[in-house]
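Residues and backbone
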Amino acid sequence: MEQRRIAVVSAGLSVPSSTRLLADRLTSATVAALRRRGVEAEVEVIELREHARDLADNLVTGFANAELRPALDAVTRADGIIAVTPVFSASYSGLFKTFFDVVDSGALTGTPVLMGATAGTARHSLALEHAMRPLFAYLRTVVTPTAVFAASEDWGGAGEASHGLASRIERAAEELAELVAARPAARTADPFADAPSFEALLRGV
């Protein structure tokens, strides 16, 4: 099977978190959708709450420390991204925005992204369209048509709300899987590819 890398960015602050729960469900559905297309997914989850201080340090120093760098590399080298945030004051969280602020400019160009958000009430659902989608458009990513919002009433039970959430998750996962499977796998550039050999250095080349 072909291989693709999926980076999952979860900006939930609590443990457990409805944001992480939504991220996990989107990930499971995407992995299954990719497998149906003959693609095996390697998943890496980035919990932003674990990097809050690292992100603040990056803002004031301009450099990612040793703890933050692997998370940034996982996102910039991914074949697809699942990005989920809680909604605060009708927009994505500050932690979520800070993470994407420190991602290298242009590093996500063309990368497929599935957006998700959680909040206590469905009144915040438009944050996906008026806040998150413009952010990822600015980063020049390719965002799935379907974004997934989950309010408190969407969780649990077997009612219409729960069924609707499951349906949106499946639809969004299929869209992301289609975009990821259609792209060539991302390649990690060798930073030493153009370095002269040891023999060449000895010859003074």
Observations:
- The chain has one domain: 2-202.
- Residues 189-193 have pLDDT under 50 and may be disordered.
